[in-house]
Prior knowledge:
2 copies of one chain form a homodimer. By secondary structure, chain A is α/β, with parallel strands linked by helices. In chain A, 39% of the residues lie in helices and 11% in strands. The first copy, chain A, contains 13 helices and 10 strands. The longest helix of chain A has 35 residues, at 363-397.
Amino acid sequence: MADSKPLLSLDGDPAAAEALLQDVFGIVVDEVIRKGTSASEKVCEWKEPEELKQLLDLELRSEGESQEQILERCRAVIRYSVKTCHPRFFNQLFSGLDPHALAGRIVTESLNTSQYTYEIAPVFVLMEEEVLKKLRALVGWSSGDGVFCPGGSISNMYAMNLARYQRYPDCKQRGLRALPPLALFTSKECHYSIKKGAAFLGLGTDSVRIVQADERGKMIPEDLEQQIRLAEAEGAVPFLVSATSGTTVLGAFDPLEAIADVCQRHGLWLHVDAAWGGSVLLSQTHRHLLDGIQRADSVAWNPHKLLSVGLQCSALLLRDTSNLLKRCHGSQASYLFQQDKFYDVTLDTGDKVVQCGRRVDCLKLWLMWKAQGGQGLERRVDQAFALARYLAEELKKREGFELVMEPEFVNVCFWFVPPSLRGKKGSPDYNERLAKRWRPSSRRAW
Amino acid sequence: MADSKPLLSLDGDPAAAEALLQDVFGIVVDEVIRKGTSASEKVCEWKEPEELKQLLDLELRSEGESQEQILERCRAVIRYSVKTCHPRFFNQLFSGLDPHALAGRIVTESLNTSQYTYEIAPVFVLMEEEVLKKLRALVGWSSGDGVFCPGGSISNMYAMNLARYQRYPDCKQRGLRALPPLALFTSKECHYSIKKGAAFLGLGTDSVRIVQADERGKMIPEDLEQQIRLAEAEGAVPFLVSATSGTTVLGAFDPLEAIADVCQRHGLWLHVDAAWGGSVLLSQTHRHLLDGIQRADSVAWNPHKLLSVGLQCSALLLRDTSNLLKRCHGSQASYLFQQDKFYDVTLDTGDKVVQCGRRVDCLKLWLMWKAQGGQGLERRVDQAFALARYLAEELKKREGFELVMEPEFVNVCFWFVPPSLRGKKGSPDYNERLAKRWRPSSRRAW
């Protein structure tokens, strides 16, 4: 009975299922791949929330709908969604559409598996390790460990949890109450996930000590040293420094060599949040911005940002070779990670993570890399830098635009100066009036 | 310069990009949708890891590859992957392929956006809320809150974090050191993510008190009461009970009414891990298994399991109407959640979560629901129960098979008794010898 019936069915008709998917794919090609990437179309058909609710008819009912209605629903979803692949989409740090990456995502979705064991994901267990190895090599490590996480915020949390576990393995069993008060350090320009992570992990946001940044937004190593001393004087135990390679707003790169020196002197775990800037490692011309990253203990790097691989693709990379990831997170669930399987069970990587089921995030990056080659990806990164430079030069030429600073990365920060304020820079309330109506815009150039 | 060039390009040729995607989609249809669901094909072309590595040629190089090579790589990835949509795939608690859900996943991937603000995901912000509202209504709540998380383990962690924050809001800032020792309670049959979560959140695995289960794997409320008293006597502060609706191995449903009574008496947060069993709420016939769930404070429910929506689709549902989720997790990052936008910023739901970028997980479920209707989904759940019943009856008739217990849900647990042990039940080393070579198999019938 169970065996005689195919699981794929659309009212019992496999051919109809295939036809539906063909139709939906046709809509995707027309509405996203063609129109969504055309500069003559809108980035978004904007609607106010109440109107959009009515247009979409979101309610879920008892009765099912016809295939024609379902296709119309797909069209409506696309019509009113933001086309993040549009050439004029400049919101947030992801955009563009790489066709190979999208191909990888479609294959991933169709295969629908979880990354936890070799028996259920043989290709992807091996592939993830190969991709992580490549990313580690770009960091400068010939060995190590790592895992893909559901986004950079969780990658950063992993780093915090690993750092405290390495110092206090007891914490896993006994909790933070068994530990002295801990302190971690990051600059005031860091991503907000550091504080969110500290709260979630039970450390509390007070454990995050803010280090001053210079006028370009880079952490000041001398202030880091001072904050460490201050924390110690207050009775806290410093355990981690989170440096940032590519801050969210200014695109600043913290001076990793100097920070690594401080960490070495004080015996602290160095985490580099390179979620945004990590992809610069692909460029021979620009990778000097991350000099010293090889001295880090952990690195978070999101190819879904600068490399346009698609959400989510966030690697946490580790220099560790002592199986720290598994020791810290493992729980040896016997129903899933049996030890008497007929293959090498170290391939069952699921116990390295705090998730159980885990999406496959490696194929899209792997396939794009195979197609473009490291050289192709390098050209893209270099082109993004060139476009940012071009934009900065254009802004300088145009009346009413004021560059906040010369870009070092692909973030170009500028003010639009309204006519009423032009020529009045230096007047007492200039900055206040500028900020009141016009926020600095951080725009990704590519 | 930046504006004149489409972002979608394959060596500068948009038509080639479209052709690539058409070709890859054709491969997906042939190899996954047709062959992958055919009982006359293999579930998996099994290869040992070393051989598979060679077959896949995983290495990432400097040079890119031709389109023909890329297509061949897609074929190879599919060839050696497990077909989780195959009618004979019985590993883990997800399987099958719903064509509407897959259509939703393909649209999601092509639109590639993040769930954090209305301006970047207008359709999906509204849709997520509508889907969560529907799931909450099935739980029995006319109001509340919720969010989709990257898997049930993280949904469970959210519940733990919310429960401790509600009791000790100070914890967010000051950390666990400012709190008394906490205790949470769950049965010995609970999912391993409860312990993983306790470790990750800094509570420590010791804070998880294990409650006894009866012979069917259901938590014993009297023992829960006793464990609470014991914890209090030891100086710990009970704050949360995590009941399970659909345990991983036996498929047991904890008695929620009785557990809710205990929680009420002691003022404890009741979380229900219904990752596996939550979908039973769709069935009028079987939803009594979750009677009392409306008294929970939070529920984790993974439609990617029983409803075959595809990884990942995990809802955390809350009865709370006091904005607890945002107060607990929010950090008011000013670059993303500006307060002076031109629409109602309560629609910017991104600050409810500990992630920053967050995948869209609602469309696939919404589209499938629109197509099938609640009635269609109910029929599927009922069919799964019927198939489990059928399998249990078949096992009773066949020599060499021993049912562990009558199934109450769709988990059918049985032993295969090797010929050498048949007829020897009750002999001194019977159980030991049975367990040594043959593990109990938990199989999803549908």
